[in-house]
């Protein structure tokens, strides 16, 4: 009879963990950061950025009302999307309803959208996903979204500038297992030389190459991709990334790489393995702080 007791305990734990995971996948958390730099001019002191990543068609409330309300209450100056807002898999039917509803509700904000591996997949694998990328692009256009695929845009207040760049790295850098090394000239070939006439924000979906982003010239990098490590353990962090890296320190949070600040979103959704434990979906707000402004005060 003892084995029945053990089996019952295991089943009860399993059911409890599944219930907890289901709850977490639908429960939004908010993380706030302040980023301070002498490269941030006083005109941009207090500038606020909402950061979304890895939604993967997830919803919080009816038609994402909870997520939209959380963004609107914070009243950010811009919204940055660090990729993978949809699920692009061979088992998934084409359905952009969630993305379209969300972007339409947020269309009054300036939105800067960087490519993730799922957006890249629909663009490159056209036989597997016919018409996906064209519909995706049409939605972005209708919702006034700036899609930065190896492109930059400048925000300007007076003589002060913030340059926002989105990089789309090649699919080989998303291969599972041992990550491919990135050549030191790769980003220069993709993006050109980093200009030094303003504060440089880089939207780069994968956090595996933070050193290369900093060497290119990024002052602040926004990444995602790792979904917070799926399951987070005390002291050890996230267990596994989608590329099968285990217990990496790049699954979630803020890192300092050289002179660059790097913020990695834990993501808003899941796909394939729809599990989150000790790892609530994360909406991020970043406030830029000018040391120039503070010095004058």
Q: pLDDT average, as an integer?
A: 90
Largest sheet: 6 strands, mixed
Radius of gyration: 20 Å
CATH superfamily: Metallo-dependent phosphatases
Describe the structure.
The chain is α/β, with parallel strands linked by helices and 297 residues long. The chain has a single domain, classed as 4-Layer Sandwich (Purple Acid Phosphatase, chain A, domain 2), CATH 3.60.21. Helix content is 27%, strand content 25%. It has helices spanning 2-25, 65-74, 97-105, 117-124, 132-142, 186-191, 210-216, 291-296, and strands at 29-37, 48-52, 78-81, 111-114, 145-148, 151-157, 160-167, 199-204, 220-223, 232-233, 237-238, 253-257, 260-264, 282-290. The strands form 3 sheets. The protein has a 6-stranded mixed β-sheet. A 6-stranded mixed β-sheet has the order 6-7-8-9-13-12. Strands 10-11 form a two-stranded antiparallel ribbon. Helix 2 links the parallel strand 2 and strand 3 (78-81). The mean pLDDT is 90.
